[in-house]
Amino acid sequence: MPIKFDRETKEFHLYNHALSYIIKTLYTGSVGQVYCGAPLAPRRTYSFLSLAASGGVLHPDKSVARFEYPAFGTGDYRTPAFALQLADGSTVTEPVYHSHTIYAGKPTIPGLPSLYAEHNEEADTLELKLFDELSGLYIILYYTIFADLPAIARHSRFVNEGKEPLVLRKAMSLSLDLPDNNWRMLSVSGAWAREFQIIESPLIPGLHSVKSGKGNSGHQQNPFVILKRPAADDSSGQALGFSLLYSGNFIAAVEGDCYSASRVQLGVNDETFSWKLEKGASFDTPEAVLVYSGNGLNHLSHVFHTLYQRRLARGIWRDRERPVLLNNWEGTYFNFTEQKLLAMASIAKELGVELFVLDDGWFGQRDNDASSLGDWFADTRKLPSGIAGLAEKITAMGLQFGLWIEPEMISKKSRLFEQHPDWAIGVPGRPRSEQRNQYALDMSRREIVDYIFTVISDIIASAPISYIKWDMNRSITEPFSLALAPDCQGEFFHRYILGVYDLYERLTRAFPHILFESCAGGGGRFDPGMLAFAPQGWISDNTDAVERLRIQSGASLVYPQSSWGSHVSAVPNHQTGRTTALSFRAMVAFFGVLGFELDPTTLSPQEKSQIAMYIEFYKTRRKTFQYGRLFRLAAPDSALFTAWQASSEEESLVGFYKLLAQPNRPPIRLRLADLEPDALYAVSLWEQGGFEEKDKSCNCGLRGGDELMQAGLLLDATSITKQGDFFGEIFIIKKVEEQTP
Ligand code: GLA
């Protein structure tokens, strides 16, 4: 069992072949962090690592010690992992070790998404119970280590067994004290249509955080941070990744202290949180996942990808190849008729598309974004035979049918608002702020969630629908719930997300055959919490292929390519005005779940035949494109080129994307990954690019795995330059049997 407890040293060692995580009960009774990183032999004790001062005595300055779940008010002046207010107003706690249990398997968290183990042998769990006598508060720290992965899932449960109500003001999912600060922090930053831009910064003394206070995880930052050693890169070096399975207000913070140590914390953002714990009540934090890599960032990403693809996503779509779709949004926006949609669908079918998705504008009287959210019945002006009639016609063509919804929202101009103005979030007596001309519904209220469940279930049940795109086009303002007591308003944001998860849970259970795609104005709520319900998400409204290189590379730090939709759209691109070749757009979109977002009735015969060819190529390799191990071979911040590799048992596919042409550049050596050094590989070029014969001949043919990984593909800069800006190529690498000389 990879969790060992030593009675004598009171040390817990969670370990497998790739990771060790050691904590221990200190002589004071509080729990200390001992070690987290590369695997250490489980037979030894490492207690000596836990204290900054030797001799088993805690340094008089508690800020030197490394605590596992630090409390407030007794001398550790760094950021505490939790904050509690007792009935007398005091805020000091001293939780000490109470008991523990170790068992095979992994528990779930009530009301919240979490990783799971399909079999008990896959994971072991430690439940460590702490107790603060004066308040009667128990804190249970959960740790699950996966047998084959350098990953630990953590969360905390607070249980009030005291005599008085308590108020939780902060409750982190994970706190980790690292002994040094020789790390650089990676996070992503962005905005609408510019999500997932990688930011790297040094760790400096003081608090550095990414967070959201918007009610959704946000376009701006994403609930993860990565710490990497300064020299570490995609292919080598140590890194630790921390990701939160949560879709609401989060914080991921690193505090550098005056002793050059670092404290990492991840959890619900305490700026917008408090929770009243009545006598006997409990509160569970979301789950945080910690991953260690000693082999660079690509390896770190693969561990997250494996977990999120295989042990977070659920249902029949978890492992299934995802359909190639056509979404009508950029093709028509709100301006369509049934006839127009059928014309689009019929061409899409000819081209090889498998799923037709009807986006916004099909309900109420929605000719623009100023009305009708909440009125989830078909607009018969546009769709005379309703959703059912349209869906039947589309499915009769041999296509699947998908539909867009935005269930958490309400327009001021809607029947729903006329009937239930109080369902929109707002503070009585104050104006509500509109965003995109809409309000958000109070998802913390059970009756509202029940109502939406019924209405959306009715639509889905009324027609042959096999896909739902669930959007959320505004964040929360004026947070307040009419259903919460004045001293419980601090619970609003978390209860909103619990309501969203509840609705998702009920809809995915009721309609297990449906593929859900999450969306929030693109990537405004693209996070692991959503992936538990919707195995793919619309990562950005930006469909420009050049921008997508950066967005998809940033997302790939933590998220697998099966989790993002990636669409080919028309040029000039609607977000950037940029024109790129159809082949370039397709080659970028291949690395993800391929879709099209254009009006196929406007395509030329040549474009149609190109698209048909692209779709056919993608379909035969989609297992590798969607589920293969993804490697970032060249950084997207290089102005010159980006390259990705996706590898499966069958083959490796390498996408090379040159950005701006520059004359007289030296040749590029593109070193591949994940091949067997001793094996022989047949290298070929997908016959779509404009490479000259000599480039083909120098890279194509039989090549050794060692050679491809060490020397790489040689991309002749001169002939690439001649292709102009934004030029892409796809190489196909297949292992061949060794030939006897
Ligand atoms: C959001 C989504 C888009 C589209 C529109 C419809 O912006 O991200 O893909 O669905 O809403 O209004």
CATH homologous group name of the largest domain = alpha-galactosidase from lactobacil brevis
Strand percent estimate? 25-35%
Number of helical elements: 14
Bound molecules: alpha-D-galactopyranose
Low-confidence blocks of residues? 52-56
The CATH architecture of the largest domain can be named as Distorted Sandwich
- What is the CATH topology descriptor of the largest domain? Beta-galactosidase, Chain A, domain 5
Determine the N-to-C terminus distance. 48 Å
CATH class of the largest domain reads Mainly Beta
The chain-level mean pLDDT equals 95
Structural class: alpha+beta
The number of domains: 3
As a percent range, the share of helical residues equals 10-25%
- What radius of gyration results from the CA coordinates? 27 Å
Principal-axis shape equals globular
* Total count of strands: 38
Q: Could you state the oligomeric state of the chains shown?
A: single chain
